Predict the 3D structure of the following.
Amino acid sequence: MRTLSRTPARTLARRTLALVAALACGGLTAPLLAADPIRIGAFVSATGPASLLGDPELKTLELYVEKINEQGGVLGRELELIHYDDAGRASEARRYANRLLRSDRVDLLIGGSTTGTTMAAVPLAERAGRPLISMAGAIEITEPVRPWIFKTPQTDRMAAERVLEDMQQRGIERIGLISGTDSFGRSGREQTHAIAADYGIEIVADRTYGPQDTDMTSQLTRIRNTEGVEAVFNFGFGQGPAIVTRNYAHLGIELPLYQSHGVASDRFLELVGSAGEGVRLPASPLLVPDALPEDDPQRPVVQAYKEAYEARWGESVSTFGGYAYDALMLAVEAMEKAGTTEPEAVRSALERIEGFVGVTGTFNLSPEDHNGLDPSSFRLLEVRDGRWHLVD
């Protein structure tokens, strides 16, 4: 699908908290400018097994392209969002990324929703010399650093670090690991294995499940029957983690259950119901904005985004939509910093962004770090009475 945004525009001020608040409330109109629009190309998994990620991402991009144009556009030009739904398929992501770069001639790419769709497009962005900002989590997207590739979610290694740190604080030493066989799950499993010993934790049981599996009772039973298991960590996204959580409760397993940031949304709570009680996971503060201290710099940003998204779409926010917000705002910040949409200048400007407060965290990018976040940007959440709560 191709969406063209045609709202009148005028010169955009620097992205500030005042602008974030203004975007949440709407903005003023301005005279029409004749300059060509800045083309933002997006490929997202709006349908299919990863729609839990891609649907709020697309809605966020549509919402904020409109709002930015209402506030005057970027560099005196309006934004034009051109997007396609890859349905979570790497082959489709590659095809659409190629179309965006060759036919639509976009200035910058945002996508994909998953690691697999992102990696399918990476070679194309590199050959075309266009910045690509991914909304997927695997560490392989930005490590090793690729000059044209950036990402907004924390890495799967950071998620594993945050979970293992909490386990260590609770005195847990032996765990069971279960993970999806998709790119995200495989990478998360590898990262967990790579660093578990650093926290004095041994993985004594290790099982996987496929994207189409509808029951993980067998894998969980094997983990439960492994001697010495003190907790279970699931690395996955989409329907799989919800099935794991429901099967876990049905089996009556009373050990602590952890999930990854791949399920950080209210939709997960709806899918698991009472089975989710006590589940812990790392996530951005978007799910608990009112629990943040008044002086936390992220508080006004996440509150403004939450209010704007829910008012427009009539549904709860998710951290996945937050990844799209950060991707778009970082792109705008880089273009403003560069004073142009020339690809190399924008790429270089992205590498110089420091102290940028987003929904996911405060970004400090550099030539050596194209993610710009650290594990402290994660907040540890726990499900209590069917709601997210910040773990003290």
